[in-house]
Amino acid sequence: MRKSVKIRKIIFEILYEIKQKNINFDESYSNYTKNIFINDQDKSMIYNIVLNSIRNNFFIQSVLKKYLEKKTSIKIKILLLSAITQILYLDFKGYAVTNDTVEVAKIKKLNPGLVNALLKNVIINNENINKKKIEKSSIPNWFTKTLNKNGLDINKIINNISKEPSLHLVFKNEKYLKNFNEHYVKTTSSSAFVQKKRKVTDIENYLKGHWWVQDLASMLPIYLSPEFKSKKIIDMCSAPGGKSFQLLSQKNDLVLNDINSKRIDILNNNLNRLNFNGKVTNVNALNISENKSYDVVVLDSPCSGVGTLRRNPEILFKKKPPNLNLLIEVQKNLIDKATKLLKNKGTLIYMVCSFFYEETKDIKHKFLKKNKNFSQQKFELNKKNEFYQFVDGEGDILCLPTKFKDHMIDGFYAVKFIRND
User: Exposed (0-12), middle (13-18) or buried (19+): which is 61, by Cβ within 10 Å?
Assistant: First the structure.
């Protein structure tokens, strides 16, 4: 089997496993690439094609609707999805993609004649195909309903999340950013978008631990909380650690907890690289001891993850939707637990990488109604502040997946509460 055919067969297997077996991309990618003899460049090609296939799925479904004359199996559609992505969106040579894809179709017994004919048709009509037409019937019903319920523009959201995420770095201090020799666009005195995307470990000063990767939207809540300095803090769900690293750079006494042992390993590796010290615990946040109380409790709660759809596009590609009701129950339980860890006059900051009302505003309103001894501490910014657009009229941080300084940022939500008893 030619190497290029082998690579495209792996791409098909990963896409099919994500779609039909509800496997996360990272897990499936790791499973299919860890024990095969291909180089890093080939692995990067697999990574790139799979993610871009999923991101462009709703546009490609409109192409398939036009060029597929009869009902076709999900396997054939997935094989065509990856091939069309390469031809229309990644500028691969059409004949090479077609030849390899037909070979995969033969191996998997997926009607190679049909695959060949359709891809040749796409190549011939490449210039006339509307590459940004959304096939709305292919958007999961649960997502469409929730967007409509939240009053959000589905076309705008889909167009935004189809773009690749930008790479944003947060530095331990201003000096490290000033001495950074890569091309970048500054976002704060100690953070920036990297202009040229490449392997994170190849970026200057990675091994020296001068910076970590963190989305701008995710960075904002701690950045806009300058009062979190020299405090006793617990981060209940801390891995992989971006917000914790922000807090550690401000000389806070920090406990970093996470339930997931694999994520704890990543967290510890990051702490070692950055030369940060903090107490790391690996327990279910609901079981954290209440013998100690803290000035600040940070709760970046498990959620649907819809704010990170550019990074995790498989959320909309999987057959099964996120269990929103279960997640909301988890969020309520965790925020209740957080109140028991907080000192009087202490601050609880609740965050989710979501923009759904049920996981954001609704949690806030129900929390304040239930806990009369808490009040909201608003994020307040001057209109001239460039981050003013991300703070809403209620004083919450609320970002949709959007652009900032011509770079992509995630959707995110944060609210702060003060304990008053």
Answer: buried
DSSP annotation of 302: -
Residue type, 30: S
- Distance of alpha carbon 376 from alpha carbon 380, whole angstroms: 12
CA 106/CA 367 separation, integer angstroms: 57
Contact 58, 85 (CB under 8 A): no
Q: Which residues of 179-203 are buried (b: 16+ CB within 10 A; e: fewer)?
A: ebeeebeebbebbbbbeeeeeeeeb
Burial label for 355, CB within 10 Å (0-12, 13-18, 19+), is buried
How confident is the model over 11-21, as pLDDT tens digits? 999 999 999 99
Report the distance separating Cα 251 and Cα 248, nearest Å: 5
Query: Where on the phi/psi map is residue 372: left (φ > 0), alpha (ψ -120 to 50), or beta?
Result: alpha
Residue indicated by tokens 């803290």: 294
Distance, in Å, from the CA atom of 157 to the CA atom of 147, rounded to the nearest integer, reads 9
Nearest-angstrom CA–CA distance, 247 and 236: 13
pLDDT in tens, 60-106: 999 999 999 888 999 999 999 999 999 999 999 999 999 999 999 99
Q: What are phi and psi of 211, to 5 degrees?
A: -155, 170
